[in-house]
């Protein structure tokens, strides 16, 4: 079940990381406790990045165990000019603060908008800081091949919060909506 959880979340995270060309830099990851976010924490760390995860206080220690160097509460003010890269899975009304958190020539990549798809952009922030904005949904075939190699070498591990039988689908959906889990929720389909 653990391996079955990696194709969607890990390919999205690795695709973002490859598109933004993340190296040993300072990275901020929003939505860090979800499937894509927890994958991004591990994938960024394996590249030598200093990882700051945005999460709830209850999940901060779990994210640090996955490799995050620091954690910020979802409601905390973001430090300005503190990150080279932002991997954003959230969007929403705090989006302008994410751009302010980027250093000059910082790079922003998104693959989600769970807090809202419509954001406000002050073009002066974009051009005065020489920022690069990237959307990421379509992954090169290399992404999947790279991920399989990372897993085979033990460099990353899929995070399975819990698994449910198909007949327990309602309970699985309720657990998902509570957002108390970290990683993916799996559904077992009898074969």
TrEMBL record:
<keyword id="KW-0560">Oxidoreductase</keyword>
<dbReference type="Pfam" id="PF00107">
    <property type="entry name" value="ADH_zinc_N"/>
</dbReference>
<dbReference type="InterPro" id="IPR036291">
    <property type="entry name" value="NAD(P)-bd_dom_sf"/>
</dbReference>
<dbReference type="GO" id="GO:0016651">
    <property type="term" value="F:oxidoreductase activity, acting on NAD(P)H"/>
</dbReference>
<dbReference type="InterPro" id="IPR013149">
    <property type="entry name" value="ADH-like_C"/>
</dbReference>
<keyword id="KW-0521">NADP</keyword>
<feature type="domain" description="Enoyl reductase (ER)">
    <location>
        <begin position="4"/>
        <end position="187"/>
    </location>
</feature>
<dbReference type="InterPro" id="IPR020843">
    <property type="entry name" value="ER"/>
</dbReference>
<protein>
    <submittedName>
        <fullName>Zinc-binding dehydrogenase</fullName>
    </submittedName>
</protein>
<dbReference type="GO" id="GO:0070402">
    <property type="term" value="F:NADPH binding"/>
</dbReference>
């Amino acid at each position: 079940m653990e391996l079955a959880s990696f194709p969607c979340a890990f390919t999205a995270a690795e695709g973002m990381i490859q598109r933004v060309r993340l190296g040993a830099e300072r990275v901020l990851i929003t939505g860090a406790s979800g499937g894509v976010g927890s994958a991004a924490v591990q994938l960024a760390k394996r590249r030598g990045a200093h990882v700051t995860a945005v999460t709830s206080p209850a999940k901060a220690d779990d994210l640090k165990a996955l490799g995050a160097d620091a954690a910020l509460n979802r409601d905390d003010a973001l430090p300005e000019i503190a990150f080279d890269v932002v991997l954003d899975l959230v969007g929403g009304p705090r989006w302008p603060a994410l751009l302010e958190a980027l250093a000059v020539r910082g790079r922003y990549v998104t693959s989600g908008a769970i807090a809202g798809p419509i954001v406000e952009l002050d073009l002066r922030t974009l051009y005065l800081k020489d920022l690069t904005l990237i959307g990421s949904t379509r992954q090169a075939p290399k992404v999947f091949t790279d991920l399989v190699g990372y897993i085979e070498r033990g460099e990353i591990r899929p995070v399975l919060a819990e698994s449910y039988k198909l007949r327990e689908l309602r309970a699985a959906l309720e657990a998902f909506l509570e957002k108390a889990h970290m990683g993916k929720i799996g559904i077992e389909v009898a074969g």
